[in-house]
Design brief:
There is one protein chain. This protein is of the alpha/beta class. The chain has a single domain (4-191), classed as Rossmann fold, CATH 3.40.50.1820. 34% of the residues lie in helices and 22% in strands. The protein has a seven-stranded mixed beta sheet with strand order 1-3-2-4-5-6-7, sandwiched between helices. Helix 1 runs parallel beside helix 5 and helix 2 (68-84) crosses helix 3 (98-109). It is globular and about 40 Å long.
Length: 193
C-alpha cells in the first residue's frame, strides 16, 4: 500500500501526472518542496497530480530496494491514476532527482505515457543506459550548477532521447528557492502538450 495524495484541477483534467520524490534514504518524500512545486505546475496546466511515497517512506508499506521496487511503485501509481482520468486524458511521469531516474525507467515499461519530465536527473550517481528505450516526449529541467548532473552525461541523455532541455541558470541540484521556476517550467511543458 502506497501513501498518496491526489490533487485535481477544477473541471475535467487535461491529463494526469505521477510525481516522484527524491531519494528515500536522504529524506526524500512526497512533501519535498520541489515535488510540491512540480505538482502545483501540473495543476496550473489543468492536469491532475498524484504524489506518493515510495515503499518504506511515510505510511507506505515496504522498504527501499535501490530502484527495482521503486520503479514498480511508479507503475502502480500510474495505473491507479489512469483509472481516475477521463479516457482521452494524457498521462505523464514527473520526477525529481532519484524520482526522475525511477520515473524514467517506469516510463519505458508503461504504455501510453505521453511525457516524462525529469527534474535534476542524477546522472553522476545512477546509470541511464535504459533511456534510449524511452518512446515518449522527454523534458529535462536542470540547474546549470547541478553537480549531480554533469554536462557531458546530460548531453548524452539529451541526444539519446531527443529531450527538450530547460536550464535554470544559477540553480544547483537541490533547487532550494527555485519552487516558482520549477512550477512554471512543469506547467509550460505540460501545456505545450
Amino acid at each position: 500500500m502506497l501513501e498518496a495524495r491526489l490533487a485535481e484541477p477544477t473541471g475535467s483534467p487535461r491529463g494526469g501526472a505521477v510525481v516522484c520524490h527524491p531519494h528515500p534514504e536522504y529524506g526524500g518524500s512526497m512533501d519535498n518542496d520541489v515535488v510540491v512545486a512540480a505538482a502545483r505546475g501540473c495543476l496550473d496546466a489543468g492536469w491532475s497530480a498524484l504524489r506518493f511515497n515510495f515503499g518504506g517512506v511515510g505510511a507506505s508499506g515496504g522498504q527501499y530496494s535501490g530502484g527495482p521496487e521503486e520503479v514498480d511503485d511508479v507503475i502502480v501509481a500510474a495505473s491507479a491514476l489512469r483509472e481516475r482520468l477521463p479516457p482521452d486524458a494524457a498521462l505523464a511521469i514527473v520526477g525529481y532527482s532519484f524520482g526522475a531516474w525511477v520515473g524514467a525507467q517506469a516510463a519505458v515499461r508503461t504504455a501510453g505515457v505521453a511525457a516524462l519530465v525529469a527534474i535534476a536527473p542524477p546522472m553522476r550517481v545512477f546509470g541511464w543506459d535504459f533511456a534510449s528505450g524511452l518512446a515518449t516526449r522527454v523534458v529535462v529541467i536542470a540547474g546549470d550548477r547541478d553537480l549531480f548532473c554533469p554536462r557531458v552525461r546530460l548531453s548524452a541523455l539529451l541526444a539519446a532521447t531527443g529531450a527538450e532541455h530547460v536550464v535554470l541558470e544559477g540553480a544547483d541540484h537541490f533547487l532550494a528557492g527555485w519552487d516558482v521556476e520549477v512550477a512554471l517550467a512543469v506547467r509550460d511543458r505540460l501545456e505545450a502538450g
